[in-house]
Design brief:
five-stranded mixed sheet, Serine Threonine Protein Phosphatase 5, Tetratricopeptide repeat, mainly alpha, Glutaredoxin, 5 strands, globular, single chain
Length: about 850
């Protein structure tokens, strides 16, 4: 500076000073930008070092102090963050952003009153005269919106009046995308969250926070996409604690405890006092019945903020995801004792209670959350669902409370109740279980309602039913479109869950729970459940086979719907293996030990072998079963080009090859060469008669015979198929047509019953059942069938009323006349109905 003074004078001197000041500010700005990058990359120590040096200068930018405080928070230095915040508030008495940050700092240090005072100061600053011009930049608008949320303002208004306004003002603001996305996630609006974070990543593609936010948005629907975004977040910031925690969360769901603990350790290495990391550890200790470890971990999570409701809320939420709803609900009650206004705990408690069958309190809590926060999607959905369920009809006996849509209850409610009762009598006896309360079963005609009741959200990731223990939710055939699943098999499957969850007090791995339910389906009815298919054979012998120790995770991130179904099948195979190798009693003993709190590997080892040996033996069993499938079949898989380019000679040499026969048959069917297609189709059935999965040859062969007017052959094929497949609606319908033409009423009746086990909500099978029952001299089922048809809005109600009246007249039922009059009301000139009416009244018959 002395040199400058010697060479400059007058206004030139001031010009030089200005240049120097601008140069200094430029250097400070560059340093600040470097510190920002360090923070976003997780170089927190470097950021702290630079920020501590920068804040020594009284002219330093406010953001230096914010970076320092955020870095302290990120690394668990909560007292240091508090000290830095106290100093910053003295320096920046006008700053709204600093007070929003200070609110978090005070809470993390257990200072709820001080945190509340920050909100009061923000309110005072925002209402001052100067706020009209002083807080109109994007950063302050976002901060004011965040403060309004903390003060309990309506989230939708905050979104519209603050955050969306800020976005319009500056669509390149990182803070805007984070604020909107986090608000959407907090209110369970995953769709808006995903959209927002995705837009943000267009501008900040290497931002770990945005990738993490998008991962959270995907977490409830697409675990594969979630994992991709977490990989991206951790690539750009290896110390990103929230991403390590979400990954640990996923691994806990997948029952990969060792890997989950490793992720928690990485998080705690960055922040030794992160409350969420310790909450996860407490929850894992609880699952292992490690009371001391759970207590220590929970206390560590509450070290600096001893009334933090988030700790118990997280513990409870994860316990509930493990179907430990009673323990989960207790944790939410602890969280609410810390903060009665903590809505995440209240809505989670509402869902836990609904899943436990404690409906009065559950619905009341859901309504309270909805009234306090109209934007919370889960609370909104549950409030609407309550009104829908209130219109359901209840069908009940001593063991079940069955709720269904009124029209469905009238059509098949009693049949569903009988099926459930048979399942209870069979499975409770087999597993020596006495249930201490009636089981609640709710059947939803809307998939959205099923999704809300089951998951809190209207989406349904492929579930037909879900069992929580004493409560079961099921999709009705009406909700499943053109190809519904066998509802009887679904109810049997879900009630088996009731039994095994009761035995284990909800302490069992998913693979075992699903495996036993599928196994018991097959025991109840050989056409239910799953069987080895060509696709499953290929997956078992290839790279898709999942080791037993990782089988639960196969349900979380399947590559496709086929892989998800394969997870069920492989789980069934494990149970089949255990029963064959060690007996049903051994499986029951394993379940009993799980109920006592023993881990699955220890329980298996206690009654079979060490888990490594069991895993090895099971793999041998599964591969042997796959290799023995259709031993006469050639399973060598040609390359796709080889199939497409093959000539007649090549196919003639592949008369036993599954892939060649299938490709040849499909090609000939597309070309309408039905007679030629029949040969490879018959060969496929001859070599593998049990193939009723994807690419089953039966429907194609039936179609070929039908096209060739070979009715007898078509019927034989359909009968073979109906004996093997539980969901073949089109084939059932055609078989009823053919069998009725042949007056083979026993086949008609059996096939109609099979159809109704899949879809009881269409009139056609009831017509065939009524016709068959009449022909077989069974009036009661015929009468019931006609009555059911009338509930289904038939195209010719007059004929149905007449046929029902005729049967009732023979039975001496006084309802006869009413149905005759109904028939005549629909068709006044219906001669047969007029004759029947005269007969009822005792008048002489008129043959004219």
């Amino acid at each position: 500076m002395l040199l400058v003074r010697q060479r400059c004078s007058g206004c030139n001197w001031w010009r030089c000073v200005t240049v120097l000041l601008l140069t200094a500010l430029s250097v400070f700005s560059a340093d600040l930008e470097d510190a920002r990058k360090d923070f976003l990359k997780g170089n927190y120590d470097a950021c702290i070092k630079a920020a501590e040096e920068a804040v020594k200068d009284r002219f330093s930018d406010e953001e230096w102090r914010q970076l320092l405080i955020r870095s302290y928070l990120a690394t668990g230095k909560y007292p240091e963050a508090l000290a830095a915040t106290t100093e910053a508030l003295r320096r920046y008495s006008w700053s709204v952003r600093m007070r929003v940050l200070a609110h978090d700092v005070y809470l993390q240090n257990g200072g709820r009153e001080q945190a509340q005072s920050m909100l009061e100061e923000i309110s005072s600053l925002a209402s001052s005269r100067g706020s009209r011009w002083g807080y109109q930049d994007v950063g302050n608008i976002v901060a004011l919106g965040q403060a309004a949320l903390l003060m309990g303002a309506d989230p939708k208004r905050v979104l519209d009046n603050f955050l969306e306004r800020a976005k319009k003002a500056d669509s390149k603001s990182r803070d805007v995308y984070l604020a909107i996305g986090e608000l959407a996630l907090d209110k369970n609006d995953a769709e808006l969250a995903a959209k927002t974070f995705f837009e943000g990543l267009k501008n900040f593609s290497e931002d770990a926070d945005l990738h993490y936010g998008l991962a959270r948005a995907y977490a409830s629907g697409d675990r594969g996409a979630m994992m991709h975004e977490l990989d991206q977040a951790l690539e750009y910031n290896t110390n990103h604690v929230p991403s390590h925690l979400l990954l640990a969360d996923h691994l806990i769901d997948a029952e990969e405890e060792k890997q989950a603990q490793e992720e928690l350790e990485k998080a705690l290495k960055v922040n030794p006092w992160n409350p969420e990391a310790w909450a996860y550890r407490a929850m894992l200790a609880h699952l292992k019945n490690d009371a001391d470890g759970e207590k220590e971990a929970r206390e560590n999570g509450l070290k600096f903020w001893d009334t933090n409701p988030q700790v118990d809320h997280l513990i409870g939420r994860k316990l509930s995801q493990k179907y430990r709803f009673t323990e989960g609900a207790a944790a939410q009650r602890r969280a609410l004792r810390f903060d009665p206004k903590y809505l995440p705990a209240k809505i989670q408690l509402a869902q836990d209670l609904l899943r436990l069958g404690e409906e009065a309190e559950g619905w009341r809590l859901a309504q309270e959350v909805h009234e306090q926060d109209g934007y919370d999607v889960t609370a909104f959905n549950l409030a609407n669902l309550h009104d829908t369920i209130a219109k359901f009809r209840t069908v009940t006996n001593a063991d079940f409370v069955l709720r269904m849509a009124a029209n469905e209850a009238e059509i098949y409610g009693q049949q569903a109740l009988k099926l459930l009762q048979r399942a209870k009598d069979t499975l409770c006896k087999k597993y020596a279980v006495e249930l201490d309360r009636p089981t609640v079963v709710e059947i939803f005609p809307s998939q959205k309602d099923f999704g809300v009741r089951t998951f809190g959200m209207p989406h349904n990731p492929g579930f037909l039913g879900v069992c929580f223990g004493p409560v079961v939710t099921v999709n009705s055939p009406a909700s499943q479109g053109a190809s519904p699943a066998n509802w009887q098999a679904v109810l049997w499957h879900e009630f088996c869950h009731v039994v095994t969850l009761h035995m284990t007090h909800n302490k069992m791995p998913r693979w075992l729970s699903e495996g036993i339910s599928v196994y018991e389906e097959v025991q109840a009815n050989p056409v239910w459940g799953q069987r080895m298919s060509p696709q499953y054979r290929e997956m078992i012998l290839g790279d898709d086979f999942t080791p037993l120790s990782k089988l639960s995770s196969a349900f979380l991130t399947p590559e496709s719907d086929l892989h998800l179904q394969f997870a069920y099948f492989e789980s069934y195979l494990v149970v089949d293996f255990l029963v064959r190798e060690y007996g049903t009693e051994t499986v029951k003993q394993v379940l009993a030990d799980l109920g006592k709190g023993m881990e699955i590997n220890a329980a298996l080892a206690a009654h079979t072998k060490e888990i490594e040996a069991v895993e090895s033996d099971f793999e041998k069993f599964a591969r042997a079963k796959a290799e023995k499938l259709a031993l006469g079949m050639d399973w060598a898989k040609p390359e796709p080009d080889e199939l497409r380019k093959a000539d007649e000679k090549w196919f003639a040499e592949k008369t036993n090859n599954y892939y060649a026969l299938t490709f040849r048959a499909k090609t000939l069917m597309r070309e309408k060469q039905f007679a030629e297609a029949a040969a490879p189709l018959r060969r496929l059935i001859e070599l593998f008669p049990g193939n009723v999965g994807r690419d089953t040859p039966y429907p194609l062969l039936a179609e070929a015979h039908r096209s060739l007017n070979e009715t007898n052959q078509e019927r034989r094929v359909l009968e073979q198929y109906a004996e093997r497949d539980a969901d073949a609606l089109e084939e059932y319908l055609r078989l009823m047509q053919l069998a009725s033409l042949d007056e083979d009423w026993s086949v008609v009746r059996k096939t109609a019953e099979r159809f109704l086990a899949v879809n009881p909500l269409v009139p056609a099978p009831y017509r065939y059942l009524a016709q068959a029952s009449e022909a077989l001299g069974e009036s009661a089922p015929a009468i019931q069938s006609y009555r059911t048809i009338l509930l289904l809005d038939p195209p010719d109600p007059a004929e149905v009323h007449y046929k029902l009246a005729r049967l009732l007249f023979r039975a001496g039922d006084p309802a006869t006349k009413r149905h005759v009059l109904k028939a005549l009301e629909e068709a006044p000139r219906y001669r047969d109905a007029l004759k029947l009416l005269l007969e009822i009244q005792g008048a002489p018959k008129d043959d004219t």
